[in-house]
């Protein structure tokens, strides 16, 4: 009789493994709650955007609020999913630390599955929208692509060639070749702002300053100063966009870590309630 009981216990222990039913249930709840919270965030975010100047939060504030919301959203969705996975997992013959490990492992796997499904849903949705727009507007996008590339430095060229305050353009300005001069300066600006570029060479800067001085009536020194200020402002704008993207990526990584931790702890708590 003792030998039979030992064999039955061993068979029961061998049957203990991941409870995929509880994992899928927790992941489904987590994904649904994540989509709900993302939809809520989109609605609130659009309500804070306004075309009127001075009524929209700054980019820095928006980045911080978005990052904090990502963390709170990950914590809530992962906690619900992990708790359900631990609470619904069948009891096993294991005791003590083994039960705690199995519960937390179920929570972690639930978080991983929910993350993969959420990224897949969002990626496929955005991909289908982008694909439909691309197929419907392929010709327009092709034409607009070259136009956008050409217009990338137009605003900077306008700033460079704008007459100074109370300074009329010089009478000897080369108006006949104005279009060619604009294109040439635009190419210089594009090279100066290209990733990994070395900026304007001394010869290009001197030549551009001479052209700007002739077109705007500024002195050579003021024209060179305008070139430096304009390029530095453009570089600062690009650097701010880079920092914003990097900060949001770090916030997203932090949200994932918080979600994994929350799901594991919630699954352990659900397991304790299951065994009571």
Folded structure, characterized:
- Helices cover 80% and strands 0% of the residues.
- It has 2 domains: 20-48 and 59-134 and 248-275, no CATH class; 151-238, no CATH class.
- By secondary structure, it is an all-alpha fold.
- The model is unreliable at 4-15, 133-150 and 171-176 (pLDDT under 50).
- Helix 3 packs parallel to helix 9.
What would a concise description of this structure say?
The protein is an all-alpha fold. 80% of the residues lie in helices and 0% in strands.
Helical fraction: over 70%
Class from helix and strand fractions = mainly alpha
Q: What is the terminal separation in angstroms?
A: 30 Å
Shape: elongated
Estimate nothing, just give the exact number of structural domains: 2
Beta-strand percentage range: under 5%
Radius of gyration, rounded?
Answer: 31 Å
DSSP summary, beta strand count: 0
Mean pLDDT: 76
Order of helices and strands: HHHHHHHHH
Number of helices: 9
Provide the low-confidence segments as ranges. Answer: 4-15, 133-150, 171-176
Biggest β-sheet description: none
How is the quaternary structure best described?
A: single chain
Keywords: Membrane, Transmembrane, Transmembrane helix
Protein name: PhnA-like protein
